[in-house]
Write a structure and sequence with these properties.
By secondary structure, the protein is an alpha+beta fold. 40% of the residues lie in helices and 21% in strands.
């Protein structure tokens, strides 16, 4: 990433985090990280500072099901998996933290799959 693009990304990320933290009202935060090869999702409890659940495209459960970890199919599978793990951890209402990423493509696919699997945000 060029220096200017990285600065803009960090600015969007800070702005999104600020908004999310002010609107959480005790809810867990579903955060997304995407790399060029994989996508990751975490449920974070900001009050206690710990990760409640996580899922990624490199999980053992998804290894045989997805062709590669960089597509929207992989993101949808990760969204479904994080929703199942969140419901198992008794957290069905969360706040979605997209970080600095635009709500499009893989990030949107993950969010839509999580909603369909039972998460509310």
């Amino acid at each position: 990433m060029a220096a200017k693009a990285k600065q803009l990304f960090e600015r969007r990320k800070r702005r999104t985090r600020y908004t999310v933290r002010n609107k959480t009202k005790g809810r867990l935060r579903l955060t997304v990280f995407r790399s060029s090869k994989h996508i990751y999702a975490q449920l974070i409890d900001d009050l206690e500072g710990r990760t409640v659940a996580y899922a990624s495209s490199i999980d053992k459960e998804l290894k045989g099901k997805i062709k590669n970890g960089a597509g929207t199919e992989a993101a949808a599978a990760v969204g479904k998996l994080i929703a199942e793990r969140a419901i198992k951890a008794e957290a069905d209402k969360v706040v979605f933290d997209r970080g600095g990423y635009i709500y499009h493509g893989r990030v949107k696919a993950l969010a839509d799959a999580a909603r369909e699997a039972g998460l509310s945000f």
